[in-house]
Structure formats: structure tokens, C-alpha cells
Write a structure and sequence with these properties.
This protein is 42% helix and 17% strand. The chain is globular. Helix 7 packs antiparallel against helix 8. By secondary structure, it is an alpha/beta fold. Strand 1, helix 1 and strand 2 form a beta-alpha-beta unit. It is built from 14 helices and nine strands. The strands form two sheets. It has a six-stranded mixed sheet with strand order 3-2-1-4-7-6. A three-stranded mixed sheet has the order 5-9-8. It has a single domain, classed as Spore Coat Polysaccharide Biosynthesis Protein SpsA, Chain A.
Length: 294
């Protein structure tokens, strides 16, 4: 087992919240290799001041011009080949926060993809595991998906459609696609991704819902496991599961803002949501810098 923490960077300045995210990453995950990846034209000196032992790997600038282009990078075989000296990579964007070191434990669970569960925009139901901003990926399994010659599995396709399509009427209209695929009109992963990326779809949606269609042995963590790994949305619903053990990390800038406010030593949290985040921060060993109101 040979994991690394890989951090995407695309600009030469660092905001205060990004500094908080990266400093925590370096402190808690210091026993693992930390690798920045970004555009060839980027000078990473400010990031290396915060993480002086980190190394940097570069890709074409075009991959960092938009969210859509970044998704193309993380759906390309060349990306995973660039990290093939590791078994697992933890993608840690600078809007993520790690509560404690659980990287070795999560690698030992042998899932191929793990991330904070995300929700269906239509009805806020849990959609899948999970968000790519704080995600653990099996490098070689990911590469196997992207280089597979297998045609998609019609049953896996229909399972995905039933998951994301809440309207029965809309689902009925899509049923012809299932029968068409069962008759042999099926895409391979390259044809699928060409259409998927052209539509501007996010890369984490592919890994959480679609990858198994092209490589059935690809293991995506179930929802309960994903919630133990990281949290992004739905904290008010699931926070009781963290009473005895925190998740590995969280993803979203609002978590960072609330943690920053906790560390600033404010008198009280701004609402129930922030109170939960403050409690998690305290359990993670963070302390408040009490300030005088005089």
C-alpha cells in the first residue's frame, strides 16, 4: 500500500481559507508524500512555502482553464499514469479539511473510489459517493476503467438511471435506451466519455455512478461508508454519527469559514449548523484563540 496526497493548484496566490486547508493537510498527513499538480506555467513557490517537502507534477495549462477542463484531466488515462508510482491517491482540493489521519485505514478498505456523498439537485436525496474534491482513488483500478475495451453493462446503466431519475414518467421515456443497449447498441468508455465531457459533466459523477458500467469489478463505496469517510452536504441530518468518531475529512468552503471562525475565538456559533462544525473542530483538536471584547 503506497498512498500519496495530491493537491490541485492553478493560481499563484493562496487565500486565507486555502492556507488553512493546506496547512492542516501538511500537519495531519505529513507522513505521506504530498504532490501538487497544476499547469506547466504555474510558479508554485507560495504553496511550497506552506508545504516545503511537497513535490510538483505538471500538466498542460488547458486542463486548468475551467472546471470542465479539469474534469477532462481527471478522466484521462495520462493523469493516472502520471501517478502510477502510487497505489492510491487522495485528491485534496484546497476547499477541503482533514480532521484526523485515517488515510492508511481507508486504503486498507480496498475501495476503488471514495468521496463525500453528494445529493440529487432535484429532490436533495442522496445521489452517490462521492464528491471528487476530497476523494480517495485506486490509481490502477481507475486506469483499468479508462482503458477498458468492454462495452457498457445495460443493467448497470439502468440502475444508474433509476437512481438519478426520480420522475417515473421521465424514467419510462428512457426505457427504450435500456432495450437498445441490450440489443447490442452499447458504448465503450471512450465513446461515453467523449459525450460526457462534451456535455460539461463533472468527473466525480463518472467515477461514482458510471465507471462500474465499463469495469464491473470497480468498487465504489456505499453511502454509509462514504459518510464515514467524509461529509459535504446533509450535515444536519447525519451529524449524530460523528458523536464518537469524526469523518476523515470534509469538503466545502463553508466548513473552512466556520472552522476559521471557531479558531478566531468568537463567543458563539452563528446557528445550529455552525455549532455542529465547531464541535467537530474541537473534537479534532483545534483550539480557539480567545480575543478580548474590551
Amino acid at each position: 500500500m503506497n498512498p500519496a496526497v495530491i493537491v490541485p493548484i492553478y493560481k499563484e496566490e493562496v487565500t486565507e481559507l486555502e492556507r488553512l486547508s493546506l496547512s492542516r493537510c501538511v500537519t495531519i498527513l505529513r507522513q505521506y508524500p504530498i504532490v501538487f499538480f497544476g499547469p506547466r506555467s504555474l510558479n508554485p513557490s507560495i504553496h511550497l512555502r506552506i508545504a516545503p517537502r511537497a513535490t510538483t507534477r505538471y500538466f498542460d495549462d488547458t486542463y486548468f482553464s475551467s472546471v470542465e477542463d479539469y474534469s477532462k484531466l481527471l478522466l484521462s488515462p495520462s493523469f493516472y499514469r502520471a501517478f502510477s508510482d502510487f497505489d492510491y491517491v487522495l485528491v485534496h482540493q484546497l476547499d477541503a479539511f482533514v480532521f484526523h489521519d485515517a488515510l492508511t485505514y481507508w486504503c486498507s478498505r480496498s475501495y476503488d473510489y471514495l468521496g463525500a456523498p453528494f445529493r440529487n439537485e432535484d429532490d436533495s436525496s442522496w445521489l452517490g459517493v462521492g464528491n471528487g474534491g476530497f476523494s480517495l482513488r485506486n490509481v490502477h483500478s481507475s486506469l483499468a476503467v479508462l482503458t477498458s475495451t468492454r462495452k457498457e453493462d445495460p443493467d448497470a446503466y439502468w440502475h444508474m438511471e433509476r437512481l438519478v431519475t426520480k420522475s417515473r414518467a421521465k424514467l419510462a421515456l428512457k426505457s427504450y435506451r435500456k432495450w437498445k443497449k441490450q440489443l447490442g447498441f452499447r458504448e465503450d468508455v471512450r465513446a461515453f466519455l467523449a459525450r460526457f465531457t462534451a456535455e460539461g459533466r463533472p468527473e466525480d459523477l463518472f467515477w461514482s455512478l458510471h465507471a462500474v458500467r465499463f469495469h464491473p469489478s470497480f468498487r465504489v463505496a456505499p453511502l454509509d461508508v462514504g459518510l464515514d469517510f467524509a461529509v459535504e452536504g446533509g450535515l444536519l441530518e447525519v451529524h449524530t454519527r460523528y458523536a464518537s468518531r469524526l469523518p476523515f475529512g470534509c469538503h466545502q468552503n463553508r466548513f473552512l469559514r466556520m472552522i476559521s471562525r471557531f479558531q478566531a475565538g468568537l463567543e458563539r456559533p452563528a446557528g445550529d449548523y455552525e455549532a455542529i462544525v465547531w464541535s467537530m473542530a474541537e473534537k479534532a483538536g483545534l483550539s480557539q484563540q480567545r480575543v478580548s471584547n474590551k
